[in-house]
Structures are given as structure tokens and as C-alpha cells.
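re the bet — no i am not wrong, look at it urself. input seq straight from the record:
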Amino acid sequence: HDAPYAGRNPLYAVTARSLTDERSVKVLDAYTRSVTGPDGTVLVQGGTLAAGEGMYRIAQGADGVPVAHQVASTGRSTALALLGSDVPAVLDLDKPNWPTLSWRLSSTNASATALLTHVASGRTVRLNLYSSSGAVKEIWNGEFDDDVPVPNGAWTWQLTAKPGNGIGPNLEQTGAFRVQRAAVSHDFDDNGLPDVLSLSVNGTFARNTVVGAATDWIARSISSTVLGTGWNVYDRIVPTADVGGTAHADILTRDRTGVLWLHQGDGTGLAHRVRVGGGWNTYDQITSAADLTGDGRTDLVATDNSGVLWLYKGTGKAGTPFTAPTRVGGGWNTYDKISAVGNLAGAPAGDLVARDRDGVLWLYLGKGDGTFASRTRIGGGWQEFTQIIGVGDQDRDGLGDLMAVDGQAHPHLYRGTGNWTKPLATRQRMYDHYLSYGIYY
């Protein structure tokens, strides 16, 4: 028995067998063809795991046992070898086309898999590779097996390829790459997908991962992760985009004494809160999700108790995240719900939706200078909802989306259309089996 490799094909090897004592010895690991010279010398085109492919002369050694001497080399390995990888150093998953991960092998007569590992979390993705154009490859959609987008950051790959001819060991090679995307509003686990936040009666604050919105499936919550406890000390919780300059989504809260706090996201959870300032109990509604002024920074708007809407321009600094307020206009106390929704109707600036006390929902298109166009009626009947929330770009089409929670605490998703005359698509019931119940944000 001459091979430690399970499943090897013995017909590929050149084996010499003694006619006197039936001893056998493997001369070559691989065989292609052979010829016999006029002097009886056997020349074999084949290869060994040690020396690779080429032309070999078979002759008796000093001890009378046949041995192979390489007389010419092709430079190719007999064992399965990696010739090169075409895995980008940085995978930008914001690009429209999914990336192709490819490895060039010395032979594509092999079955191969690639194990991708996120360094920070240890979560993995296993890809079954196919052969094409001299390489094994796969087009990766950037998701785990449960359809959740993978997080940004450092990743490693481990290629395992099993030779189809059974000659030599499995090929094992490793490498590294990074995944990157732009920061998005409502994304608190750094995977480019906005999360739905929830606050339970006992003050447990959780992040809920929602998938399926980018397809024709019913959007569904598949997991819930606790971000903190004791959050019932706050009477306002405002998820937003990057306010403090960390390139991660942040959260603003107001405690019952009127102090506003900033909770900066770090890609996996929330950092310790930072005090923004006091006196915020003068405001009835506070919302923030987008750049309203065209400077690339996330802004905030708030309505005071007399119905005046105020704009706080973002600075990008955690210590002083907003400038002094600027008056936008009065009469906003006609609305009982106001939500910043990002780009809902197709213009680049962030928009607002507001529900009046008759249940009519209105759209305020952002102009990009901190002001808004005259309101446009979206539709009536919105009084059935207890909450109306801008939840970021759930379907990843570049437009903001809206979540509305009905009186039975069931969430519904309204996708942004990019059309200001009909900015919301027909509502879609969200499958909320894993969604933490309570107040949603």
C-alpha cells in the first residue's frame, strides 16, 4: 500500500513489481504516457509529489530496485497547488454587483470550498466553489446563511481543495480581506442593514435584525440583541445616523430632567453616553436621521411646546454634536407624529413625514438647506398606527423606508418609492416572531 491520501486512484501511479518475490515499489505518483527507447530505457511522462511534472527515465538503482530520474521538467506541480488568488483586498459591498472570489489552481479537477471568517465575531460563511476558466470561484452575495448581511471589518479566507485524481494531499491556503460599506442610519451592528430598536416595559433596550425587505419576501425579524437595560429613564429615544463622527449610527436620548444624551455606536453596540446639554424638555418631538442641510452631516429637528420647528445642524463632533438652533417655522403643533425619514421621495436631501390629528400623513420634501417644500398629502387613515418611524433604507434601494405599528403592536413596512406624488409603496406586514415587543424606534 503506497499512499496516505484517502480516495487516491492507484491507476495514476507507476508501480514496479518484482517477478521473483512480488515486492512492489511506486516509481511515479502520476502517469501520462510512456515510450521505450532502443536501448530498453523506459521514458515516462508523469510526475512525483516531490519533483513535479516532467519526463522521467526509469532505470534500476544500485540496489536493483527501479527508480525514476527526471530528465526534463514542465515546471508544473503534481500535487494540487495554488497559482494565485483573485480575492480583492477590500470588498466594497455598496457596489451594485456582487464580488467574485476566485482562486487559480494548477488543476481545476478538484472540489473546493472557501471558509470566510469575520475576525471580530468569529462568524463564518462557507462557499462551495465551482470551476471556470482555470479557477475555482464563487459570486458572493455578502450574506450569512440566514440572509443577514455580513458585518464590515477584517475577514480571513481558508481555501480547501481536494484533488479530483486523488494524487497528493488536500490543498489548504489562507488569506485576508476587508469588507466595507458606507455608514447608514439605524445600523447598529455595522452590516449596512438598518435595525429596528425596541424598548420593553422593564426598560430593556434591544436591537432587532430585519431581513427580506430587499426581496419579494415578507420582511421578517430573525434575531434580537440586548443593547442595554434601564432605558426607561429616558422619555425620548431617537435613533439616527452618525452624529458623533465615528462612522457608525448613533442614538440620542432625553432623560426626564430634560438632559439630552448621545450614545455613539461602535459597530457592535453602544459606547458610554455623552452629555449633550440640558433644557431639552422644552421640545415635544425630536427626530433625526439624515442630512437636511447638504453638508454631509446628520442634523436634528425638534418642535417646541408652542409648535415651532427648530433645526439643529450637525457638527460631526461628539462633544458638541449640534450648532445653536435655527427657527424653521411655526404651526407644527398640528401634528402628533413627526419623523425624519431620509431620502423618501427621490430628492437628495432628507425628508420629513408628519401626521396631523385627523390621521392624515403629510410629506415635507427637504430642500437641502434646512428648509422644506410645501407639504404634500400622502393619505388618510394613519390614526390606526400608534407609531410612525423612519427606519432607514430597509430594502437597500437608496431610499428611506417607514415602519408603522398598529394598535395590536404589529409592525408594517412602507417602502420609499422615490416619487414625491406617491412616496410610499403599499404596506407590507412584517413577520415579527423574533421582534422584541414594546415601543419601537
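see?? The chain has no helices and 35 strands. told u. also The chain has three domains: 14-73, 82-180, 195-440. so pay up
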